[in-house]
């Protein structure tokens, strides 16, 4: 890390001189650089060439519009539905927000809470109420939100996707990121300073997700055929799902907050929802008992503990990257890099029912106040 400073950026919303030409298509249509969910899928944030927009989901509506300048953000993260955001510039040479800096912006005061600078490009940022996590190509920095001190520096294998996920329950501080070898995941208990190494796949990890309490970890590799669920505390493989037989890039994986479902989107244009087995998730006792599963695999029939097919499916445009989350009452939520929002129901299994499909850029801004953290 080069530096960390605290300074105001009240001018963030003012237009700036911009020497890089903008094509005609970008003038009429807002180009999306990134889309990401907040921690509980109650909202999402969209980074564009001109700024960023924030949306809440129940119902879907625009909460904040900050597209008043031409220096956009390739990485945008939000802390639940609060006024705090992490911003990383899109990399133009004349930008005041370069790809090597992270700005934590307080929208309530229209100022920068802190600025973190690095020697290489920032690939991802994750937020907890207590921590700021910054992902570089071969390392992960963990900062205290209160005093900006570096609490941990984690070395990883080359991580071009910026893979990292963190728990959100206040009593637990769990972080998962790639290990030092391909297919490996390292899980850090930040409070107890304990590290668990999980050999999740034979090939590189392409996607990972933790539950809010950090107890379960979902992973997928570059093969894209299997999704695996682990007990993040001891590394036990609890369940394995088959997305398909052909290779595919998995864009997003999510575990529902009620610990019943896992959803995954991929480049094949199919959304899959899988059913988590209740016998290994209903209580800590059952989760501990599941640690015997690897031993039972050699004794019991393969259909009992082999990979399982999806419970429900939905077809999506193949050309669009979708990020998946969960709504209420057996609904799954999708936000696409094409500017679309979808809400689908999967009560009966099989083909899902689409309940809602909107272009989120067409939504008008509301006057709803966000939470001040």
Which short descriptors sum up this protein?
single chain, 373 residues, mainly beta, Methylamine Dehydrogenase, Chain H, five-stranded antiparallel sheet, 30 strands
Structural features, described:
The protein contains 4 helices and 30 strands. The chain starts with a strand and ends in a 14-residue tail after the last strand. The strands form 7 sheets. The chain has a 5-stranded antiparallel β-sheet with strand order 1-9-8-7-6, with no helix packed on it. The chain has a 5-stranded mixed β-sheet with strand order 22-23-24-25-29, with no helix packed on it. The chain has helices at residues 24-28, 284-289, 293-296, 302-305; strands at 3-5, 32-37, 43-48, 51-57, 60-66, 73-78, 84-89, 101-106, 111-117, 124-127, 131-135, 139-144, 150-155, 165-166, 174-178, 184-189, 194-199, 205-210, 216-221, 226-231, 237-242, 250-255, 261-266, 270-275, 312-315, 322-326, 331-336, 340-345, 350-351, 353-359. β12 and β13 form a beta hairpin. It has a single domain, classed as Methylamine Dehydrogenase, Chain H, CATH 2.130.10.10. It is mainly beta and 373 residues long.
Describe the structure in brief.
The chain contains four helices and 30 strands.
- CATH evolutionary superfamily: YVTN repeat-like/Quinoprotein amine dehydrogenase
The number of domains is: 1
Which fold name fills CATH's third level, the topology? Methylamine Dehydrogenase, Chain H
Q: Which word captures the global form?
A: globular
Taking pLDDT < 50 over at least 5 consecutive residues as the criterion, the unreliable ranges are 6-28, 283-305
Indicate the percent of residues in helices: under 10%
Strand order of the largest sheet: 1-9-8-7-6
Distance between the termini: 26 Å
Tell me which CATH architecture applies here. 7 Propeller
Number of helices: 4
Strand segment tally: 30
